[in-house]
Amino acid sequence: MLGNGRPDDPPVRVVIDTMGGDFGPRETVKGAIQALSNDNIELILVGDQGPVQAELERHDTTGRSVTLVPSVDKIGDDEHPIQALRHKPKASIVVATKLVKSGDADVVVSMGSTGASMASSVFLLGLMEGLERPCLGGPFLGVAPGTVMVDAGSNMDCRPALMLSFAALGSVFAHRFLGIENPRIGLLSVGAEEAKGNKQVQESYALLQQSHLNFIGNVEGMDFFTGRADVIVCDGFVGNILMKFAEGLGGALSGFVKDRLAGALSSQDLAKISDDLWQTTNMPRTMGGPLFGVNGAVVLGHGSCEASGVAGAIHTAVRYVQVGLVDSMKEELSQINKGHQPAAKLQAED
Amino acid sequence: MLGNGRPDDPPVRVVIDTMGGDFGPRETVKGAIQALSNDNIELILVGDQGPVQAELERHDTTGRSVTLVPSVDKIGDDEHPIQALRHKPKASIVVATKLVKSGDADVVVSMGSTGASMASSVFLLGLMEGLERPCLGGPFLGVAPGTVMVDAGSNMDCRPALMLSFAALGSVFAHRFLGIENPRIGLLSVGAEEAKGNKQVQESYALLQQSHLNFIGNVEGMDFFTGRADVIVCDGFVGNILMKFAEGLGGALSGFVKDRLAGALSSQDLAKISDDLWQTTNMPRTMGGPLFGVNGAVVLGHGSCEASGVAGAIHTAVRYVQVGLVDSMKEELSQINKGHQPAAKLQAED
């Protein structure tokens, strides 16, 4: 695996939007402090000064690098992200993202509104050249830790060119973050044959085939678990449904196993296996979801994260920076965009 | 639960395409014979005479109603369904479906090519009035046995009017087959709010809201397990991916649990819990999938079914007939179509 961080690497400067999520700032601050023990980081906590200071005082941070940068208010899940950015210019996610923009932090982590995080990333950090929307990606199942899904976010009705960008970004992630050489890219469909799938998939198939990516063709729902592909590309509509479906199924099966094994196992072992099942189907709650395609490192955590999930998202953020995802992704997108112009592509291949 | 079949009900005449599936005719015949013990049926086996006769002789059918109707050849998964229907007019699925058409059988069951079964159903039995495509539906998870998904099949790029038809057909199935009064219909999306989702979902939302169905709005991936909706409506692209994803995840978790509990449980108990997990995520392999929207009863089984899966699909077929799904679905579709003409709808409500 690449870039686990060498001992002489400088600490990664992580800024946390402590107000985000269902349990901020209590669990976000607690998780951030936990992360200080796991990773070589400098912490910048952004949030309403009084409450965050109070949370901070619950922990011993002697000798640790922790800075508090005050913000005013937060943007909720129920707000229109772009309007909210305008009306709340000092909101925690805005202040936090600006610290990455100004170079005062290496990466921003938020458990808050996905829409607000994506909007502030796009407006403040800017989209990578040649991309029309950012996306969320990564592995999302503990039982399939080497399978990267892009887009796991909320891009609806994606055009084929955007699906191609997802593939490029996912490929870089699989290579740099997971250490997979020449990642195999599969397009999520309802059958392996080229003609299978909806119009979007059929058109994306052609584009992917023409690209320099290691495209292996269509894959199906079961292929998240067969190891056929390292990166599975889908529309954010399907990706979002799959992620939430997996969470739900994991929870249901966790209960199912508990019922079936009651009596056969000690209550401690029972709780353990049930919890393990839940965890393995809820990876984004334990490691966050990296945002791809903006000119800066951003990791979104699950809104219902408690401290350990916050620490997990911070760990992902640290690796995001250490493996240099932003630069590699920019480079890959520029290759992909060259590929769109056949003459330029030929030249590049000479 | 409605219509479990009363003792004085006449036997249901079930015709089986014995050539279909990965293990036909051996497992299809074996499963059909098993079904004779479970359900009050008369069996009609369709297939290549020699091989089916040979399979039949492996079983004791003394005193049982079993008829063999010969056919020639079968249609494979790799063939274009409509062309194959033309070139193989005596193929098993064609002969079997014709027996329902002529009134000599009440329901046809096939483990063969889904495309061929759907095409022969549409061409021979005809689509219900007001419908542009048939669909597959039903519960597909043992941990969510009361949640009906439509379309679980292969209708891609569905227009909103077709999504409305799926909802109507699913509603009838939930009511008649599962005994749910006034089934709650949810539209599968990425958020509960009306504005959430892709264009298809947004447009379908409006149509569903205007209908007389008990539409509760958008539901999300986890809602297959929350009991919020009795029927979840989606495009066949998403439905197919979800079904295969659930199968794959079930298999992966089954292995996961086996690994984690090795040592803590006897190998027998271990095999049992692992098998239970697999079963509960593979319901279509054990009960088949009913086809909705054609003028006759049709149940498709999973291609990789062994005998017990064939018997399960036959059980589904028997209930399909006993609860009178075809007539109820026709009636519901005609209500829905009236609803499309506002004046007629008002009249109906007076």
How are the elements arranged and paired?
The structure is a homodimer of 350-residue chains.
Chain A: E1 12-17, H1 26-38, E2 41-47, H2 49-56, E3 66-70, H3 81-87, H4 92-101, E4 107-110, H5 114-125, E5 135-138, E6 148-150, H6 160-176, E7 185-188, H7 199-210, E8 215-219, E9 231-233, H8 236-261, H9 267-280, H10 283-287, E10 289-292, E11 297-300, H11 307-322, H12 325-339, H13 342-349
Parallel strand pairs in A: 1-2, 1-4, 2-3, 4-11, 6-9, 7-8, 7-9
Antiparallel strand pairs in A: 5-6, 5-10, 10-11
Helix pairs in contact in A: 1-11, 3-5, 4-5, 6-7, 6-12, 8-9
Structure, briefly:
Two copies of one chain form a homodimer. With 350 residues, the first copy, chain A, is of the alpha/beta class.
Structural notes for this entry:
2 copies of one chain form a homodimer. The first copy, chain A, is an alpha/beta fold. Chain A folds into 2 domains: about 160 residues, Isopropylmalate Dehydrogenase, CATH 3.40.718.10; about 150 residues, Isopropylmalate Dehydrogenase (3-Layer(aba) Sandwich), CATH 3.40.718.10. Helices cover about 45% and strands about 15% of the residues of chain A. Chain A has 13 helices and 11 strands. An 11-stranded mixed beta sheet of chain A has the order 3-2-1-4-11-10-5-6-9-7-8, sandwiched between helices. In chain A, a hairpin with a 4-residue loop joins strand 10 and strand 11. The radius of gyration of chain A is 21 Å and the shape is globular. The C terminus of chain A is likely disordered. The interface between A and B is large, with 51 and 51 residues.
